[in-house]
Amino acid sequence: MFLKLEEINMRDAFGKYLHNIGDKYKDMVVLDCDLSTSTRTNLFAKKYPKRFFNMGIAEQNMLGTAMGFAISGKIPIVSGFSIFTSGRAWEFIRMACHDNLNVKIITTHGGIVGEDGSTHNALEDLSIMATLPNLNVLIPVDNLELVQMLDFALKNEGPFYIRIPRESSTNVHNKNYHFTMRKPDVVKKGKDICFIGTGYGTILSLKSALEIENELNCTVKVINLSTIKPIDEEKLINEVKNVKGVIIIEEHNIYCGVGSIVARIFSERYPIKMKIIGVDNSYCQSGTRNEVLKEYGLNIENIIEKAKNLLS
Amino acid sequence: MVINEAEESDLLLDILDIKKNILKMIYLAQSGHPGGSLSCATLIYLLYKKIMKFNPKNPKWDERDIFILSKGHAAPALYSVLSKIGLITKEELTTLRKVNSKLQGHPVKNDQLGIEITTGSLGMGLSIGVGCALSAKLDKKKDKLIYVLLGDGELNEGSIWEAAMAASHYNLDNLIAIVDRNGIQSDGFTEEIMGLEPLANKWDAFGWDVIEVDGSNIREIIGGFQKSKKTIRKPTVIISYLVKGSDISFMEHSSKYHGRAPNKEEYENAIKEIEEIEKKIGVS
Ligand SMILES: Cc1ncc(C[n+]2csc(CCOP(=O)(O)OP(=O)(O)O)c2C)c(N)n1
């Protein structure tokens, strides 16, 4: 259950979810931009060919079309790679959010993609998404949470951006877990320091926390911040009230990323020692995902070092 | 420029060698895009070897023509060609997609290699070409030509057609777009995903001079490029009919190997197939 590598990766879980839910939501349509094999929307396409629209490699047109579907009473699910969908079609998304349209943008290849390299990495998408009023921005840490987020997004009106990684996922929750929008999800209790992770950042947080506790005489709390926007500020502040410091771990550029969002909340309402670990102002490069993560400081050793500095 | 038979078979053998390197690089990296790299290898090689003003000893030479690989996922084809003309060593080829390698998964701007701009996010190359072509006009560099290689799936992007309008509006006869018309994109056949036909008519309607060539025929390709140089007051597009995964029987005409590396057995079989073709042409 805890930190177990899942058998199916998150993209497959996403594809299966759409495939299974099609009958329940008759107004749901799925749009992809020539990446249905990678995003796994092809499973839905096979079962519901009439409700699937491959828009070709044309992200802007895909978003515009989704907006048209939304004002016509459909629930469009829009998919593609995180950076191309959020980046190329950004102003379309901005206007969809402006009118609070019921568009669900669910992308894969969030964060570091590995071998494809800098052009395909999504390390700026959260900045440009989280800045949009009305948009709900979510990052699932495991399949269980992903499925509940998808349920939530379908049941609730309004635009959503859900970011799925390319890699297989690690299970963090037990099956009783219940995703609550906005609420910081405490995945591990602790008293001395608090790690706040998003997506893979949560997994790194947990692994680092266990090692630090072995090494030092301290306990580490870990929060899975899966709702990036909107955040329940009150609850988040309450969670860090008794710790000495906070470390935020995100698979994103640290400039205007999740750390910046959280830092605004703490600096205004509850100043506390903080360290933000993420990609420091780079587009990164090719390599296996683990090598690239390490190269840019998203590894357990670096996190432990930063935690020690913060505690000392 | 007429090429004789001996030269033609030399070029063909070079291209087969380039294809072997493409396969090797992707096999060693265990990731990459073999289909669309194999399809356009001939075009890129002929551009560098026979068509463009380009000096491998001085890739930043001011008088050079400009090449933009807009379909950046064909990076292995570009790297193998650059290796053939001496800019990348055989050892370097084995570092494709590895941390700290010059040979990134998608081409990254690099003055030593003559890579003019980073590509991989589709749909940008033709606009960039328009900028280069306008700039060459401003500088009165009459002989400087700008070549942009596009994927056919890539033509789905609206920005391509924005650039197409601008290029004809500004009479950019120094801009040559080449379309790798292999008929397949990532999810399947172009005509099933987002129909492009009648493609030649579309470019024609946008004010471009259209040349169609059989991309497996070296003489025809060279003829097409020569013809493009004669166009006045209009940009030219060369629609090159090619085969995705060309020369490897199990990769041809399929989207399966669009973004998938061959395993060991597939790799070895692919190399064998190329060696068979080499034998037919007559490797000494
Ligand atoms: C903006 C953008 N959207 C999506 C992709 C993902 N992608 C990479 S290659 C490809 C298909 C390209 O098809 P085509 O242009 O026909 O290339 P070819 O068949 O020649 O390889 C897609 C969708 C991308 N690289 N850039």
Structure report:
The complex is a heterodimer of chains A (312) and B (284). With 312 residues, chain A is α/β, with parallel strands linked by helices. Chain A has two domains: 5-163, Rossmann fold (3-Layer(aba) Sandwich); 185-311, Rossmann fold (3-Layer(aba) Sandwich), CATH 3.40.50. In chain A, 40% of the residues lie in helices and 21% in strands. Chain A contains 13 helices and 14 strands. Chain A has helices at residues 10-21, 36-39, 42-47, 59-71, 82-88, 90-98, 125-130, 143-155, 200-215, 233-239, 258-269, 289-295, 300-311, and strands spanning 4-5, 28-32, 52-54, 75-81, 104-108, 136-138, 160-163, 170-171, 185-188, 193-197, 220-224, 227-229, 245-253, 273-279. Chain A starts with a strand and ends with a helix. The model of chain A has no long low-confidence stretch (mean pLDDT 96). Chain B is α/β, with parallel strands linked by helices and 284 residues long. Chain B has one domain: Thiamin diphosphate (ThDP)-binding fold, Pyr/PP domains (Rossmann fold), CATH 3.40.50.970. Chain B is 43% helix and 10% strand. Chain B has a five-stranded parallel β-sheet with strand order 1-2-3-5-4, sandwiched between helices. In chain B, helix 9 links the parallel strand 4 and strand 5 (236-241). Chains A and B meet through helix 2, helix 5 and helix 12 of A and loops of B. Thiamine diphosphate (TPP) sits between chains B (33, 35-36, 39, 71, 73, 120-123, 151-154, 180, 182, 184-186, 244) and A (34-35, 57, 84, 88).
